[in-house]
Amino acid sequence: MRSPDQLLHPTPAGLYCPVGDFYIDPVRAVDRAVITHGHADHARAGHGTVLATPETINIMAARYGENFTARRQPTELGEVVSINGVDVSLAPAGHVLGSAQAVVEHKGLRMVCTGDYKRRQDPTCTPFEPVPCHVFISEATFALPVFRHPDDRDEIRKLLHSLTTFPDRAHLVGVYALGKAQRVISLIREAGYHDTIYIHGALKSLCDLYEDHGISLGNLEPATLEKGVAKEEQAKFSGKIVMGPPSAFRDKWARRFPDPITVFCSGWMRIRQRAKQSGVELPIILSDHADWDELTQTVRDVNPQEVWVTHGREDALCRWAELDGYKARPLRLVGYDEDS
Q: Fewest CB atoms within 10 A around its CB: which of 17, 21, 259, 294?
């Protein structure tokens, strides 16, 4: 079996396969890219060829325009594609719609790069599947023991309880446009809330895309309030859910709603000081990443010979892996944001 570094190794542009001459989630424009999912820190425009799931291809087109790449190579989960003699396939990552782990195999060596992933049940995407391999390359966004995410549905019940407790106040819910927005809406519907949910314009195109892929989100309407509108118009948002990206909460848009309660859905809401500094009145701990227990359990499920750790709390997960009997190393890749 060849050295893993000969098959994949970190470079300034991202994780590179010299044998196949391709990158996984490169942070710079390259000739050939394998993309794990559609978040902007992993999926960038300008590559020569993009191999990804059909859903991720569609997400990139929606976000960057139809000419985001010179050549698209949509690849279904489980389909094996040969790139210069290297077998590449995609396995479910459970992060967002279309998200996948990149499975790279050559001359008896299998390496799996998770991209971002989670292990929780999510009605909006295909669940994560552990793939046995020699080298497991894991994200580590929440790789500290303090990060143990509570039950998703209990967190959603907090939001719905607040709606009934404060029927005269709009609930402004901060969510990322891709994945988090659609997951929160789906969980709200699953909990029995079927009223109209009002959404900021920045969420519309991706919510429409999810609907096009068969994920029903219920009745959504624009959360539009012009400056100086009558109190009667503002009142229609009393006791309602209004969703928007975090950036919109720093804008005048958010201040036009009646006595709003600020809500933010993020794994980072586990840190109370972070919620307080952000002015969040109702923190909802809800993440699209694996927490500490899920990260460590996944390593045991995969049972690799080596664990490589990237973009997150690398040292903590490496130390745990070493104590648990695995050879481990941090990759120190740069250019990946800590979303929630």
A: 259
* Phi, psi dihedrals of residue 83, rounded to the nearest 5°: -120, 105
Q: What is the pLDDT of residues 275-298, one digit of tens each?
A: 887 789 999 999 999 999 999 999
Q: Which of 114, 146, 88 is nearest to 313 (CA)?
A: 146
Q: How far apart are CA 275 and CA 284, in angstroms?
A: 10
Q: Which residue do the tokens 């080596």 mark?
A: 306
DSSP 269: G
Where does residue 184 rank: exposed (0-12), middle (13-18), buried (19+ CB within 10 A)? buried
User: How many Å apart are CA 154 and CA 286, to the nearest integer?
Assistant: 10
Give CA–CA dist 152/173, Å, rounded: 15
Cα–Cα dist 73/83, whole Å: 11
Instruction: State residue 9's pLDDT score.
Output: 94
Q: Are 142 and 295 in contact (CB under 8 A)?
A: yes
Backbone angles phi, psi at 73, to 5 degrees: -130, 75
- Specify burial of residue 152 (Cβ count, 10 A radius: 0-12, 13-18, 19+): buried
CB 252 within 8 A of CB 227: yes
Integer Cα distance of 52 and 81 in angstroms: 11
Q: What is the DSSP string of 205-254?
A: HHHHHHHHTT-----EEE----TT--HHHHHTTTT-EEEE-GGGGGSGGG
pLDDT digits (tens, 9 = 90+) for 218-259: 999 999 866 655 566 677 889 999 999 988 887 778 778 888
